[in-house]
Amino acid sequence: MTVDAAATDTLADVAGLRVGHATRTGDGWLTGTTVVLAPEGGAVAAVDVRGGGPGTKETDALDPRNLVQKVEAVVLTGGSAYGLDAASGVMAWLEERGRGVRVGRDPAHVVPVVPAACVFDLGRGGDFRARPGAATGRAAVEAADASEPGAPVPGGCVGAGTGAVVGRLKGGIGTASAVLGSGITVAALVVANAAGSAVDPLTGVLYGELLEGPAAYPPPPVHEAAERRLAEIAATNAPPPLNTTLAVVATDAALTRAQAQKLAGTAHDGIARAVRPVHLLNDGDTVFTLSTGTRPLDQENPLALNDILTAGADLVTRAITRAVRTAHSVEGPAGSWPSYEELYGGSRVDGTG
Predict the structure, then answer these.
(1) 68-124: pLDDT as tens digits
(2) pTM of the model
(3) Are 149 and 16 in contact (CB under 8 A)?
(4) Which DSSP category does 181 fall into?
(5) Strands (E), the chain
């Protein structure tokens, strides 16, 4: 499988998809919402949920056995189950534009199907009741609509990644993309907010970077200092009761709904490579897939999907690594979450540990 770098190395490299973030910080807030907006007319979608504590909306509609063929948007949000209200704001915005499933003769009579999933970040800004709602969702979809096609997608502590935590470190949004030898583009966007850790406790290297070739390991004194700092903070922070990693894996390949669901399932392998452990009872790990269908898949080759499956999992791993690397430290009334870069920075050395 030949893989080349895509233009922006973000989800926006799948033509027609746009991403918008709504971020709330300060005055008790540390949360937000991210919307992936499909091209008008929608995209084929699927989902695979493997965490033991998911918070989702409209995921049953994506079952290939059910009626809905395409969706207009996917919502990723903070605020736990409360934050799923953000999808209502996205639905209202779509309804105003006549985008959704037609349910009557009048073109305005539509029901937008907006699958959504949430991460747990309640109270991390200091106010347990500061969580996304319909207005936050509307702001995020408006930001997506206002973005230029193909514009790079911001990552780090934005949108649904604003209050994200990975183990003892600050998490956030990460995204990555690739162009396969066939010319098909595959991309991933992840909200990294895991109960498990992204860091090898023995060396300080990110698990995900072990898959990208020879890893650069932190010098032992740097890792030891980081561990001491994290132990001190953990003693004062409230334990994270619930967490979740969310992902959207997208492609311009024309996938059936069953193929899209297979892609959602194998993409979970990418989470497992970057975070350990995963899919716990207090995780809500959920992967959505979107297919814009502008490039045909070789129907004569029953294994043509394999390259997309492989790339999807690899890109989820890379997106999680980027989420951890681009996050910034946060300190507030509810606790302190240092970033990986603050603890380890550029103080890495090549080697095998």
Answers:
(1) 999 999 999 999 999 999 999 999 999 999 999 999 899 899 999 999 999 999 999
(2) 0.95
(3) yes
(4) T
(5) 3-5, 18-26, 29-37, 44-49, 56-57, 73-77, 101-102, 110-111, 116-118, 165-166, 169-170, 172-180, 185-192, 216-217, 246-253, 286-295, 330-332, 335-337, 349-350
